[in-house]
Amino acid sequence: MPNLNYAAQYGRELANAYPYLSYYADLWNQGESQRFRPLRGKTVYIPSMSTTGARAVNRDRIDGVFNRNFDVNWEAHDLQMDRDWDTLVDPMDIDETNEVATIANVTRTFNQFQKIPEQDAYMSSKLAGFASAFGGVSFAVLSAANILDEWDNALAYMTDQRVNRDRVRCKMTPACYKLLKQAAGITRFIELSNGIQDVDRNVARLDGVRIEEVPSDMMKTVYNFAVGWAIGSGAAQINFLLYDPMAIAAPIIYDTSMMSAPTAQSKGKYLYYERYYYDVFVLAQRQAGVYAQLGAAPTIGTLTVTSAADASAGDSVITVSGPGIYDSGAIQEGVKLVYCADQSAAITCTYGAVPPVANTWTEMTANPATIGSLTASKVITVAAVNKQTGFVVASGYATQVVGT
Known about the structure:
Layout: E1 4-5, H1 7-21, H2 32-35, E2 43-51, E3 70-78, E4 81-89, H3 91-96, H4 103-134, E5 137-138, H5 147-160, E6 169-172, H6 174-182, E7 189-193, E8 196-200, E9 205-206, E10 209-213, E11 223-224, E12 230-231, E13 238-243, E14 248-249, E15 252-260, E16 270-278, E17 281-282, E18 290-294, E19 301-302, E20 304-309, E21 316-321, E22 335-343, E23 362-364, E24 369-371, E25 379-386, E26 392-399
Parallel strand pairs: 5-18, 6-10, 19-26
Antiparallel strand pairs: 1-15, 2-3, 4-16, 6-13, 7-8, 9-10, 11-12, 13-18, 14-17, 15-16, 20-21, 21-24, 22-23, 22-25, 25-26
């Protein structure tokens, strides 16, 4: 009997299982995930477009000059989670367990207790990472007294970034949800019907945002996916996540799902094998659509800064790469670069704080940028900051090399 690859059928069947098993069924293979899928192999190409603004009309002349007033950037992402799984099933096990140990039951158990929880844990960590890289985070210690303030700050931040609140959803740990129910200012309804008191303390929606509880062990910033999923070293707790589904693409591609009947090679056993790819991406112009309340401050990102001599004396060409920067050098929406040059040593920046005010910082409007009147062998520090808050999310430095 030949091996049968039923990946397409298997993928459709599993799609039916996600709403019942996954905490992120609204993101996996939904919405933007259907638009941004691999064209070849496991590489996803995600475009983003920018345009110039409108200008005043000149009624008195036509100069006949027209420009291309838009630009397109492409991000190529490989699906990082390239996973496979296999198992043998002995026909004797099927008989002796009264058909409990069938391929169908084994794969169903794998999906429910391994595959889908692994994918949800990966989703939580990736969303927290996106929020951290962009600066959409808070790491204040939560209590019943301040949780509503934290919530209001998060929604105000997203609204200021032009995120449509009607689309925003929230995932929250049970401990955080408990604080929310205990918070002063939450309105509760008591229904008296037929002499029976019905007290409903659920907070299904707050300010129009739907809230869903997710187990704490599936809301961490770091996981180890060597075999299955396990909480990683140094992981911080994610207390709650706010996100706009239109900001996220989470494709799942089933490459192989096949079963072999018992053969001499398998020593009379059934052999099941599947391979699949998946990943989570945030769209570059919608990074503000993810916000995280974390149990600890994220680690500051690292920018790679290089300095090269320009043709003019005292001028240096500064190039920056790293978080928030396209391969082309263009700076992603919502982030800007600032620099402080001619220092005797690198300036230390702190994640989630403004660049040190004791120094003078200048916006780096292009990348690469030619900066003039620098002194050779001094140090230039560059910081990536969130445009809305001005808080640093990444930094780096280089020794200045200047033209002579």
